[in-house]
Amino acid sequence: MENKTLLSIIIGVVILAILGFGIYFFTTSYQPTTKSSVGTETVTTNSVSIKNFAFDPADIKVAKGSTVTWTNNDAVNHELKSDQFQSQSLNPGDQFTFTFVNTGKVSYHCSIHPSMTGSVTVE
Prior knowledge:
The protein has one helix at about 1-30; strands at about 35-40, 40-50, 55, 60, 65-70, 80, 95-100, 105-110, 115-120. It has about 120 residues and is an alpha+beta fold. It has two domains: about 1-30; about 35-120, Immunoglobulin-like (Sandwich), CATH 2.60.40.
């Protein structure tokens, strides 16, 4: 009887560990890309997470006409700046979106924390 109780506890711990890893994986690394039709063109929306004083992913490629959304998942404010856009100061949980209408590479950084850099390549 004692062995069955110990086995049940071990199985329960393993199941909780698997569930915990699954929740962590999907909430920290899953960044969905969705497509929707607008008229005759397809518009792609991409997400960038701001966390641990970095952009994740730091460099992305999108199609011309795509909208990119940055979400501040850090505990401090961040502010995005490039030659094409400037965000307001993003409090934790805030978002900033920008639609890219020109092709080429757009480099950006956090104007509060200049070591934070990223780029969007528009094809």
